């Protein structure tokens, strides 16, 4: 398949309608959002949704998020919208928060991976919103990467993984958040955080009162355990190299690397630390700035592969606030390989 490439930097760009035509004709296209690039298709058509799974190589039991551009598109997708959901939407939409509720009958079974619920989000990215509006229907859009690989935060990441497998790629530069949306389910008695992201647990608690944090946010699922969020059970964000998170002070991290690193190994560290380390460094943001870490982590994980590194020694991020999302992605890239020094 020949993939068409568009460069769009304004919601008024004429190419928006070309991309919308591709989607209206049942095609699939990678589009920018503020979180990561998404692989979009008509959320209300099972055959479009199937194309997305095929192009990504995504397991069919891992459900997709439905993206809307206007609040009025939400009600038809779900059984009902409780007060708590409206309060979240009012505070955090458009933005990086996905809300799960029991689904209505118009949601194709392919999207929900066989679950009785559907995940919905309204992105804030102007290009994404313009494309959804021009389509006139909601778009299913998981991250536009090959399943298992680091999520794409710029169009060249998408091209690396999906060129020739999808109808179009829209390039609008780097994503501003750089990490996927926060996912919360309101289909449980107490709201439950399934995936940390740009909207932090503290921000959610302020609106909802009590929330629970799913065990899979911090820990590896036990063999045979059922995942509340199926995505959490799969190997994720993994470069080809072995990633090891080294938890401890910078001095101990440095010493550990000096004692253990071999030819071709790489340090995945913070920008301020490069000069003090004796091996090749790839940075993921600034030390005390978790937002910059979120923005850079996926690109850094892709660079690790470009370097053909064997072992990667990663600095442990502060796992609070948006740092919790950075930790959650990094610990999966490392297959929960953490060493304390
Ligand atoms: P991605 O589309 O790649 O950002 O991944 C979407 C994430 O949301 C995955 O971890 C899914 O398992 C999760 N998700 C989507 N829909 C649901 C749902 N209905 N119930 C639970 N988790 C969901
Ligand atoms: Mg993904």
By CATH, the architecture of the largest domain is named Alpha-Beta Complex
Question: What ligands does this structure carry?
Answer: adenosine monophosphate, magnesium ion
Strand-residue proportion = 15-25%
The count of β-strands is 16
Provide the residue-averaged pLDDT.
Answer: 95
Q: What order do the helices and strands follow? A: EHEEHEHEHEHEHEEEHEEHEEHEHE
Briefly note the structural class of the backbone: alpha/beta
Distance between the termini: 50 Å
Largest sheet, in brief, is: 11 strands, mixed
**Number of H- or I-type helical stretches:** 10
SSE blueprint and pairings:
Blueprint: E1 4-7, H1 15-24, E2 29-31, E3 38-42, H2 46-56, E4 65-67, H3 83-92, E5 97-102, H4 109-112, E6 117-121, H5 126-135, E7 139-140, H6 155-162, E8 168-171, E9 182-185, E10 192-195, H7 201-208, E11 212-213, E12 242-247, H8 250-260, E13 266-269, E14 281-283, H9 290-306, E15 311-315, H10 323-333, E16 338-340
Helix pairs in contact: 1-5, 9-10
This protein binds adenosine monophosphate (AMP) and magnesium ion (MG).
The site of adenosine monophosphate has 20 residues, from β6 and β10.
Summed up, what is this model?
With 341 residues, this protein is an alpha/beta fold. The chain is built from ten helices and 16 strands. It folds into two domains: 4-217, DHBP synthase; 242-340, Threonylcarbamoyl-AMP synthase, C-terminal domain (Rossmann fold).
């Amino acid at each position: 398949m020949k993939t068409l490439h568009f460069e769009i930097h304004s919601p008024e760009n004429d190419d928006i309608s070309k991309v919308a035509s591709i989607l209206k004709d049942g095609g699939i296209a990678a589009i920018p959002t503020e979180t990561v690039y998404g692989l979009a298709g008509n959320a209300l058509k099972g055959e479009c949704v199937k194309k997305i799974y095929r192009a990504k190589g995504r397991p069919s039991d891992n459900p997709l998020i439905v993206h809307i551009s206007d609040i009025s598109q939400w009600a038809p997708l779900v059984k009902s919208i409780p007060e708590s959901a409206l309060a979240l939407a009012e505070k955090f939409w458009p933005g990086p928060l996905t809300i799960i509720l029991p689904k209505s009958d118009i949601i194709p079974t392919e999207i929900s991976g066989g679950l009785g619920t559907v995940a919905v989000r309204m992105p804030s990215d102007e290009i994404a919103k313009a494309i959804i509006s021009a389509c006139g229907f909601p778009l299913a859009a998981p991250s536009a990467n090959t399943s298992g690989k680091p999520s794409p935060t710029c169009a060249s990441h998408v091209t690396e993984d999906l060129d020739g497998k999808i109808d179009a790629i829209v390039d609008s530069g780097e994503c501003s958040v750089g990490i996927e949306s926060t996912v919360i389910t309101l289909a449980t008695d107490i709201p439950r955080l399934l995936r940390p992201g740009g909207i932090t647990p503290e921000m959610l608690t302020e609106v909802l009162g009590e929330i629970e944090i799913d065990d899979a946010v911090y820990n590896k699922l036990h063999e045979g355990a059922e995942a509340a969020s199926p995505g959490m059970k799969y190997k994720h964000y993994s470069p080809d190299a072995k990633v090891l998170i080294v938890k401890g002070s910078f001095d101990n991290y440095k010493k550990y690397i000096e004692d253990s690193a071999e030819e071709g190994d790489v340090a995945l560290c913070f920008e301020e630390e490069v000069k003090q380390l004796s091996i090749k460094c790839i940075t993921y943001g600034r030390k005390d700035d978790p937002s910059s870490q979120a923005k850079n982590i996926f690109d850094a994980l892709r660079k690790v592969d470009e370097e053909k590194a064997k072992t990667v020694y990663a600095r442990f991020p502060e796992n609070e606030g948006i740092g919790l999302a950075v930790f959650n992605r990094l610990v999966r890239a490392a297959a929960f390989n953490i060493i304390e020094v």
